[in-house]
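Chapter review: from sequence to fold.
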Amino acid sequence: MATTTVSARATRSGPSSIVLKTIMALTGLFFLFYLLVHMYGNLMILMGPEAFDEYAHHIRTIGEPMVPEKGVLWVMRIGLLASLVLHVWAAVTLWRRAGQARTNRYVMKRKGYGNFYAKAMRWGGLAILLFVVFHILHLTTHTISIGEPQPTPSQRVVESFSQWWGVLIYVVAMVAVGLHLLHGIWGAAMTLGLNTSLKRAEQIRFVSILVATIIVVGFLIPPFAILLGLVP
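The token string follows.
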């Protein structure tokens, strides 16, 4: 049994909820594309330090000499930052609207997968945001070091994942990413109108599980390979 709810449309300002959901869907798909590319780059460490360092150097020199060094990389960084701001803004706005849509909380709370995924998306998203900040300070600006400071990208990665607690941080972050993707891909497909039948809904669910699993496993292979001494 629930208390009476009231519509908040009359007091709302800003874009409609469907516009906000579309922004989340499109920026989420952009992040998904970036994750796949980033995962491919991380897996290069399995081919040896030289291959990984060559990859790290290549992404800084894409487009030369027509494009300045790190030019394409900075365009990507700015695009990712803009997408992150839009994604978080849309998510927070929708979260607030959901809370404002009723004056009182439900007397009986529904339990189930829907409630679990809603909390996983919100708090998991916050965990991912904190990890992104940590990741930038760790491997981009080198403000934070795990283990001893190292001169090359491959040595920094190997040194970081030679520490069990460095791998643990990564595992927690990847679990949050996996849960976020699992529900996020499904939600994006719904928002973009791809769910046209029960069969299509099952296909979308399968793709969500498959993509989330590939990304989580793909990102966790290098840390565990390094921790177990499989990468020099």
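Two observations follow directly from the output. The chain is about 70% helix and 0% strand. The mean pLDDT is 86.
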